[in-house]
Amino acid sequence: MDSIAELRSRLRAFAQERDWGRFHSPKNLAMALSGEAGELIAELQWLDDASVADGLEQGALKERLADEAADVLLYLVQFTEAAGIDLVDAAHAKIDRNESRYPVHLAHGTATKQTELHRPHQD
Amino acid sequence: MDSIAELRSRLRAFAQERDWGRFHSPKNLAMALSGEAGELIAELQWLDDASVADGLEQGALKERLADEAADVLLYLVQFTEAAGIDLVDAAHAKIDRNESRYPVHLAHGTATKQTELHRPHQD
Amino acid sequence: MDSIAELRSRLRAFAQERDWGRFHSPKNLAMALSGEAGELIAELQWLDDASVADGLEQGALKERLADEAADVLLYLVQFTEAAGIDLVDAAHAKIDRNESRYPVHLAHGTATKQTELHRPHQD
Amino acid sequence: MDSIAELRSRLRAFAQERDWGRFHSPKNLAMALSGEAGELIAELQWLDDASVADGLEQGALKERLADEAADVLLYLVQFTEAAGIDLVDAAHAKIDRNESRYPVHLAHGTATKQTELHRPHQD
């Protein structure tokens, strides 16, 4: 069974057994996902790249990050299910689109270019 | 091929072709993930549950949410790869842990209970 | 003394006494701010509006939200100081701009309009 | 007039004139705040500290960051007002608490210590 499909199936059973489905509106699940993303970056906020590398090698940081990453995925799977979105299809469609938006011959190169290409909208 | 493994493989090629790997530290990717989670909730912030349901039926909202959910997954896959974390293993480990933490006979029930169980730490 | 100026002054002393200034790059402080915003929404993710109102009246929720809101402000003040931004000026400039962008005669009205006006960019 | 009080007063008038008060539940405003925090970190996600410093000097990055920081403050002020929280009091109370939690003689020093002290909770 596909990994995402298997997680979806376990999560559906988990919520049903606890009667938690009624809390799982798209809006609430998006909030939960965002909260977990916040916990993920909170783990890294004071560390420079070298300290992150050290922490990952020693294992304790890796375990905490794995835990937070898992939380993000679990809420993402539940969010997309609640919204009737096929997560894996959407992800492939997005990579397809990015391949058109950032052609290799233009995107290859400098941080400036990368930044420019990825620059979020104003306002 | 498993869905997560396939996305990982496409994303790896995408970043390599553009020489973007050097921007993809765990810290930067966690920030990108968190930024995308922010865009996801921004889509829902002024809508009540009924408006979300309407919007999902009409399709335009669904497309925007699918796009943002895809972005979250793409950065999550890249983040966990950069950190040497097996995302699917971590997700199953987390569900296992949640099954112990929230036993069905205790967790079944009220919003209060759910809130209490899920209540984030103080400070 | 103005409230923001006073907080800035206390926070500067706090960080100096602990030699924490070197962790306080704009990037790190932005991450910290975002992490705290995540904790704030985590407090509300499973509650409907009526439960939020109840929780605020009983006081315990209010205290937790006050605590998280304070954290957001403290990091925001430190972030803008590290980036050389005048936070209060920026806030007034933004309200000025919003007054032009959302003229009263157009913005008054329906959720749809509000949503449309506030709709985040695509991608 | 105090800076926060003045912003609160302008924002109250702004929302009233547009009849937007009914969208401004604590939950919705917390989501909006979190979305803006996401936009803030999105501006910084691919930049190292030197590039941030360069960008701030050239002005364009500074303007974008000022804009996003302003958005965070505007929603924070509105959120705390909707929740009946005194934002400035809460901020001072939090600094007081942090002064007890991180005594100068213990907190002074290494990144490890800082990380340990600031380490977010597990789960």
UniProtKB/TrEMBL annotation, chains A, B, C, D:
What is a single Pfam family found in this protein's UniProt entry?
MazG-like
Q: What Gene Ontology molecular-function terms does this entry list?
A: nucleoside triphosphate diphosphatase activity
- Highest taxon of source: Bacteria
Which SUPFAM superfamilies is this protein grouped with? all-alpha NTP pyrophosphatases
Q: Where is this region: Disordered?
A: 102-123
* Listed Gene3D superfamilies: MazG-like
- Please name the GO terms of the biological process aspect recorded for this protein, alphabetically: nucleoside triphosphate catabolic process
Q: Which UniProt keywords apply?
A: Hydrolase
Protein's UniProt name = NTP pyrophosphatase (Non-canonical NTP hydrolase)
The species this protein belongs to is Saccharopolyspora gloriosae
